[in-house]
C-alpha cells in the first residue's frame, strides 16, 4: 500500500509521534521512511548576517542530530530510512520533497514547536493537509 512515507519533523512531541507512527506503517508495509527537517530561514533573515548564520548553524546541528537518532531507531527496527535537510518555508519544502521522492503518504504532527494553542492544528500541518496531492495523516 505504501512504498515511501515522508515524515517532516521538528522535534516537537506531535512530530515525534508522527515519526513513531510512520515507523509502524513502514514496518507493516515494508516501506521506506524519508524524514525531513526544514530550517525556517524566513524567520531569521539571510544567513550572510553573522547572528543569523549562528542561529541557522545551531538549527542545522539540532536537525541533523535528531534525524541521525531517528535513523538509528529505524535501523534497529530494520526499516529503510533516508533523511534530508532543507531551508525555506516548511510547508513548501514538504511539498517539494514529497514530489521529489514520489511519496505515497505524508505523516505529520498536528502541530509543531512554534504552535502554542492546545487542540488546534498548526499552520504548517494545516497547509500541508489543505494543499497536498498526496494523502496526509496527522499524528
Can you give me a brief rundown of this structure?
With 139 residues, the chain is an alpha/beta fold. The protein is built from four helices and five strands, in the order βαβαβαβαβ. Strands 3-2-1-4-5 form a five-stranded parallel beta sheet, sandwiched between helices.
Can you give a write-up of this model?
About 45% of the residues lie in helices and about 20% in strands. The protein has about 140 residues and is of the alpha/beta class. It has helices at about 15-30, 50-75, 90-100, 125-130, and strands at about 5-10, 30-40, 80-85, 105-110, 135-139. It has a 5-stranded parallel sheet, with helices on both faces. The chain has one domain (about 5-139): 3-Layer(aba) Sandwich (Rossmann fold), CATH 3.40.50.620. Helix 3 crosses helix 4 (about 125-130). The model has no long low-confidence stretch (mean pLDDT about 90). The two termini are about 20 Å apart.
Amino acid at each position: 500500500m505504501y512504498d515511501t512515507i515522508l515524515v517532516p519533523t521538528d522535534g516537537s512531541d506531535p512530530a515525534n509521534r508522527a515519526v513513531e507512527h510512520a515507523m509502524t506503517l513502514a514496518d507493516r508495509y515494508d516501506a521506506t521512511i524519508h524524514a525531513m527537517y526544514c530550517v525556517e530561514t524566513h524567520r531569521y533573515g539571510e544567513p550572510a548576517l553573522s547572528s543569523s548564520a549562528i542561529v541557522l548553524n545551531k538549527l542545522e546541528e539540532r536537525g541533523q542530530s535528531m534525524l541521525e537518532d531517528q535513523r538509528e531507531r529505524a535501523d534497529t527496527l530494520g526499516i529503510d530510512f533516508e533523511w534530508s535537510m532543507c531551508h525555506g518555508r516548511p510547508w513548501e519544502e514538504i511539498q517539494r520533497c514529497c514530489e521529489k521522492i514520489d511519496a505515497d503518504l505524508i505523516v505529520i504532527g498536528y502541530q509543531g514547536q512554534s504552535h502554542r494553542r492546545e487542540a488546534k492544528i498548526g499552520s504548517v500541518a494545516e497547509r500541508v493537509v489543505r494543499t497536498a496531492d498526496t494523502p496526509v495523516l496527522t499524528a
